[in-house]
Amino acid sequence: MTPAVEFIDVTKRFPGATSPALDHVNLTIDPGELVCVLGTSGGGKTTFIKLINRLHDPDTGTVLVNGQDVSQVDPVELRRGIGYVIQQTGLFPHMTVSENIACVPKILKWDRGRIDARVDELLELVHLDPSDFRDRYPSQLSGGQQQRIGLVRALAASPEIMLLDEPFGAIDAITRAKLQDELLRIHRGSGKTFVFVTHDVTEALKLGTKVLVVDAGRVQQYATPEELLAHPATPFVRELLETQGYTPEGRRA
Ligand SMILES: Nc1ncnc2c1ncn2[C@@H]1O[C@H](COP(=O)(O)OP(=O)(O)OP(=O)(O)O)[C@@H](O)[C@H]1O
């Protein structure tokens, strides 16, 4: 099976930085996984996902997406096959909800009927009534609704890979839990590969089929939530779990 994503000895150092943002990273993400990238601020989580869609390029090493070295792929072409969701949503304020969702399908020259049907299908997927929401502008939505639109916009053309960078970070706890449940349902229904950045241990353990813990640019552990809880691989992982209330037995302290 060709991995969805593979990092081979990848190092990324930003100009002027004393230490690399990512340091000799090697790992493989299998198709269909939901990998949560977990760590404290500045550890390299965002850098990791931006290397997948070429918002950054590595200094050394190779990033492969679906078996292809991304440095050999036109970035615009590459990003068409990779959904990207960020906390600030990036919704276009002067476009309606349906125009926002239709962006990539339009670029791909889908016909009008197919686009309209897809917009309605996606709105229903996140429990927003199409007749109510289709023609609203982003400023007429709550924060949670904006996140749902950001999510389904990235899903519109069914990309093989979805990158999500702390998408629910600015949302209240109840809405956040609902969005997490919706994301899990969407991931399971899609069979696609999701990479989800978070600094919240509970979120990573709830969502991840695997959790990738990074700190100071290094992989601390890459394991299932169960393995992570039972056998924290480094003092950093143990401390991260303990400070958020998790003991090695997997119970909240
Ligand atoms: N464009 C950039 N130029 C210079 N340094 C950068 C740039 N982007 C990130 N860095 C540095 O690289 C390191 C890793 O940053 P990164 O954004 O990947 O961390 P993070 O784990 O996502 O943090 P956070 O949770 O705060 O978003 C940090 O030290 C950061 O200051």
Summarize the structure.
This protein has 253 residues and is α/β, with parallel strands linked by helices. Helix content is 38%, strand content 23%.
Structural features, described:
This protein is of the alpha/beta class and 253 residues long. It has 2 domains: 147 residues, Rossmann fold, CATH 3.40.50.300; 77 residues, no CATH class. It has a 6-stranded mixed sheet with strand order 6-7-8-3-9-10, with helices on both faces. Strands 2-1-4-5 form a 4-stranded antiparallel sheet, covered by helices on one side. Strand 4 and strand 5 form a beta hairpin. The radius of gyration is 18 Å and the shape is globular. The termini are far apart. Bound molecules: adenosine-5'-triphosphate (ATP). Adenosine-5'-triphosphate binds next to helix 1. One of its GO terms (molecular function) is ATP hydrolysis activity. This is ABC-type quaternary amine transporter.
Order of helices and strands: EEEHEEHEHHHHHEHEHEEHH
> What value does the average pLDDT take?
93
Total beta strands: 10
How many domains, in number, for the residues? 2
Shape field: globular
Ions, cofactors and other bound molecules: adenosine-5'-triphosphate
**Sheet/helix structural class:** alpha/beta
- Based on the structure, what is the oligomeric state of the protein chains? single chain
Strand content: 15-25%
Task: Based on the coordinates given, report the CATH architecture of the largest domain.
Answer: 3-Layer(aba) Sandwich
Q: What is the overall number of helices?
A: 11
